[in-house]
Amino acid sequence: GEIVDDYVYGRGALDDKASAFGILEALETLLSHDWNPSYNFYFCFGQDEEIGGRNGAGVAAAMCREKDITFRTIFDEAGTISVGSVPGLENTPVALIGVAEKGYISVEVNFEQPGGHSSMPDTENAILSASAFITSLNEDPIFKPEFTEPLQGFMTHLAPEMSFGLKWAFGLRPLTNSLILSNYQGSSTGRALTTNTAVATMVGAGIKDNVVPSSSRVVCNTRILPGYSVDDIVNAYSQRAAEYGGTVQWYNDYGAGPTATSSFDGEDFLTLGQSIRATFPEALVSPYLTLGGTDSKNFDGLAKQTYRFLPIALTPEDLPRIHGINERLHVDAYRDLCRFYLDLFQRI
Length: 348
What we know:
Blueprint: E1 2-4, E2 7-9, H1 17-32, H2 57-66, E3 71-82, E4 94-101, E5 103-112, E6 116-117, H3 126-139, H4 149-158, H5 164-171, H6 177-184, H7 188-194, E7 199-205, E8 211-212, E9 215-224, H8 230-242, E10 246-256, H9 267-279, E11 284-290, E12 303-314, E13 328-330, H10 331-347
Parallel strand pairs: 3-12, 4-11
Antiparallel strand pairs: 1-2, 2-13, 3-4, 5-9, 5-10, 6-8, 7-9
């Protein structure tokens, strides 16, 4: 990376080299002052988190299972300090702690129908079937919106700080559940928090411009809510695809179910919140559902609790920089990140 005008520019400045370096700097500082922790600390830095972590954290987790090593709590990155993104709290920073993580599955839907010469096309073909199937994903979603435990916790924690209208709506749950769910469907983030997303990501058919193909393929990706299994999702796709003459199989033989939901009123959640408030005193603290994938899912079942939090404040303008153009982190923000880990390691 490169430092320009007090910003560190470089791939991973936000996601997620800053956290890795901050953890190591905090650890090095504490050890240089003869730190003697009360518990054993294990640190895992994987190299393939963005593609599932099977050859990094997955290998480390397998070793822990082989050696019967378990943990009281696992801390990973994910939720950030959201500034200006939480409805009703646009002027208040909110530290979002991921207490559960959505699962991941991609399926391949194949359509087979007679093809032929383009000069005499039939009224039905494999491309039309694939198109109708894709359209149905938006017009009649396979999965219906619902509240999971992490989102219930999110609303319970933040409702007292919100504007009157939102405070009223959240306070009258479950009577207002349908109203809130309907409102959440108005944004991509809201839909991701309340549904098993279903979206076509790859489409293929045909190899020649004057031939109607006899087959087509659609790859769809779903991020799975807690409470569902990979098989639940595959079966739901199979039922929908059958309506259009399609068949379903796993894509790339990879899938991961959602993680268990960790307590958001236990000791280590509260300790994490104390370190957040010590470093970012203006921030509210709330449980949250992690939408993307983290390395910690590979350790699911090895710890009583898992919490996902990255101590960086992000505005809506910062989000496109992640994995994008001009990814950057202010040197003061990096200093706060290091201070947070120094505080957390000594509180645990």
